[in-house]
Amino acid sequence: MTKIPGETAYTAIYRVVRRIPAGRVATYGAVAAGAGLPGQARLVGYALHRCPQGQRIPWQRVVNARGMISRLPDPDAAAGQRVLLESEGIEFDARGAIDLARFGWHDAETR
Predict the structure, then answer these.
(1) Which fold has domain 9-110?
(2) Exposure string (b/e) for 15-39, b if CB count within 10 Å is 16 or more?
(3) In degrees, to the nearest 5, what angle opens at C-alpha 20 toward C-alphas 23 and 66?
(4) How far apart are CA 93 and CA 49, in angstroms?
């Protein structure tokens, strides 16, 4: 997917994240690639940290390349993210990782 002309990077990121279906996750890198911003995984994290209030952006569905919840400034937020993902049927292993082969959403990279 390429960034739409005139679209901000954050808007492109939010557009991709909104497409991640419930019960699936995407990595920061996959979201960046899908938004036309390859190699900008950290930018995805910055964008999600600044999600606009009142918009339905399923930020909880974005995890790191190891299939784990990234460290968040608020430890309760990480626990809350896990609860949200588990409520969608996502399973974690004993290390706290998600099987990306099973639960990963790769559409972000190909559209």
Answers:
(1) Arc Repressor Mutant, subunit A (1.10.10)
(2) bbbebbeeebbbbbbbbbbbbbbee
(3) 75
(4) 26
Sign of CA dihedral 97, 63, 85, 26: negative
Residue with token string 């005139």: 6
User: What is the structure's pLDDT at 4?
Assistant: 57
Residue 101 structure tokens: 């082969």
pTM: 0.89
User: Quick one: pLDDT at residue 60?
Assistant: 95
pLDDT for position 102: 96
The identity of residue 68, as a single letter, is: M
Q: Which residues of the chain are modeled with pLDDT < 50?
A: 110-111
Ranges of each domain in the chain: 9-110
pLDDT at 23: 97
Per-residue pLDDT, 111:
44
User: How far from 96 is each of 19, 21, 79, 107, CA to CA, in Å?
Assistant: 24, 21, 11, 24
